[in-house]
Amino acid sequence: MVAPGRSGGVRLGCMFVTILVGIGAYCGAYIGQSYWKYYQFQDAFKNEARFATHYTDKQIKSHLRQMADSLLLPDDAYDITVDRGKHHIDISTQYYDHVKLGPMTRDFYYSPHGEADF
After folding, report:
1. In this predicted structure, what is the pLDDT of residue 102?
2. Is 75 a domain residue?
3. SS3 state at 21
4. Coil, strand or helix at 93
5. What confidence score (pLDDT) does residue 106 get?
6. Is the CB of residue 7 less than 8 Å from the CB of residue 66?
7. ∠ CA 109-112-116 to the nearest 5 degrees?
8. Which tens digits make up the pLDDT trace of 45-75?
9. Orientation angle between helical segments 12-50 and 57-70, nearest 10 degrees
10. Tens-digit pLDDT profile for residues 3-53
11. pLDDT at residue 85, rounded to an integer
12. How many angstroms separate the CA atoms of 32 and 43, rounded?
């Protein structure tokens, strides 16, 4: 049995919450994808630093640039710095990822970094 005065009506509050959840999911998917790419790139930096004794600086940069290419990262991500000491290596870069959120664009700053002692 339907309560009087409520047959087929949609409450404005319920619709508002549904719209907010939809917008949040839409934006969250793009922001999450940007962060996931950074996380994968950061992991590659740590792995390259961990196995730095097996590779030259040129090979390390090549591996990381290939990773940036496969992740479709911005051009700034390809500018990789490798500082190698006698028993230490430091690998880093910096870039902004431009994420479109409907009519807006938001820039997220990332600075993947990896270092290790050997």
Report:
1. 77
2. yes
3. helix
4. coil
5. 92
6. no
7. 155
8. 999 999 999 999 999 999 999 999 999 999 9
9. 160
10. 555 555 566 778 788 888 887 787 788 899 999 999 999 999 999 999 999
11. 94
12. 16
User: In 3-state terms, what secondary structure has residue 90?
Assistant: strand
- The SS3 assignment for 97 reads strand
DSSP per position, 31-98: HHHHHHHHHHHHHHHHHHHHTGGGS-HHHHHHHHHHHHHHTT--GGGG--EEEE-SSEEEEE--EEEE
Number of structural domains the chain divides into: 1
Q: Which domain holds residue 69?
A: 14-117
Tell whether 5 is covered by a domain: no
Tokens of 32: 């999450």
Let me know if residue 91 belongs to a domain: yes
Query: Could you give the CA distance from residue 15 to residue 64 in angstroms, rounded to a whole number?
Result: 46
